Amino acid sequence: YYRLKAFNDFGESAYAGPVHASTWTHWKVWQNTHFGAETDPGQIGYFADVDNDGIPNILEYAMGGIPTSAASAPRPTMEILQLGSTRYPAVRVTKNPNANDVVITVEVSSDLQTWRSGEGHTVVVNETPSLLIVRSTEPISQNSKIFFRIRATMQ
Questions:
Q1: Of 103, 126, 127, 105, nearest to 27 (Cα)?
Q2: Could you tell me the CA-to-CA distances from 124 to 33, 121, 139 in Å, in that order?
Q3: CA–CA separation, 36 vs 19, rounded Å?
Q4: pLDDT digit string (tens) for 106-141?
């Protein structure tokens, strides 16, 4: 516990009674903001989806969504990036700038079975606290299939 005393230009106060405090993570603050006193993991857990928009809480948190409103669901968008004469598929993801305790990873697959990211598979084109753009290392061709998925991992 802590004991508090206030100081200003007029003097100082007596010590306050014991004060109990805890430090909340950004995730916990987000949970409290959107769910209040709710404690049921089926409502507030990483993989819960109370608004049934298909986006679990961990992704709603990572991408700045509102977990209780399907209308506000954050949606990554697909883009085509031109580098010289070569075109690459890319995905743009909005990030929650306060979610510094979660990592967003963009993964690619050609068969929806094997997912890869990083060197030889994806390239981060731009990353800021509120935006992530990642492209595939495989260029677009008539016979290619490239799928993207977004993974969020708590640190």
A1: 103
A2: 31, 10, 15
A3: 22
A4: 999 999 999 999 999 999 999 999 999 999 999 998
CA distance 155 to 149: 19
Question: How many C-beta atoms lie closer than 10 Å to residue 54's C-beta?
Answer: 9
Measured CA to CA, the distance from residue 136 to residue 149 in angstroms comes to: 12
| Conformational region of residue 81, where left means phi above 0, alpha means psi within -120 to 50, and beta covers everything else | beta
pLDDT tens for 15-37 read 676 766 667 899 999 999 999 98
Task: Please give the angle made by the CA atoms of 125, 94 and 47, to the nearest 5 degrees.
Answer: 115
Taking CB atoms within 8 Å and a gap of at least 24, the contacts of 113-119 are: 115/149, 117/151
